[in-house]
Amino acid sequence: MKKAALEKIDFSKTDRDLYTATPKAKEVTAGKATFLSFEGKGEPGGKAFEDAIQQLYSLAYTAKFMLRHNGKLDFAVGKLECLWHTENIEQTPRSEWCWQMLVRIPDTVTAADLKKARDEVRRKRGLDTSGVKRWTWKEGRCVQMMHVGPYDQVGRSYSQLDEYARERGLVASCPAHEIYISNPQRVEPARLKTIIRLPVSSPAP
Asked: What is the 8-class DSSP label of residue 5?
């Protein structure tokens, strides 16, 4: 008897306000969500950065295929996301930038599911993914927009977000949150699309 097809979870469709944006700033609210997370330090595009991406996606895709094969659930592996935890990033050497790479996963993917997937990644690829953690986070109230252009010009868009927040009596803070919509290996720098987001709050009385 043929198994019933699983409904695929796709956050780009269920949470469109968080995974689509325009060059015009707007306010959004991000609720609690679950991620694969890898915290590190180093230059964007450097070895530590690329190793983190490899581990995240190896674990994400292995978990996806194992869970789908077992008939538990199916999900679309999402875009790469990154939290930048260095506040004075322009005054900090790139080798000292602190980041947290993320790939969102369904809340129902358990630590036990991920352990099985880790074992499979190690068995098949000889890759240790112990640096990847299951992480739950509630981002809350934010402002966001789409940055179009090279990554090294994203500061201009963050300035627009900060101005948008201040005009509305809000205070923007860290961590800066980026969601990489484009593949930099396939898209020229001038056309790269990156959703950028900053948490905001009302100023203290």
From this structure: P
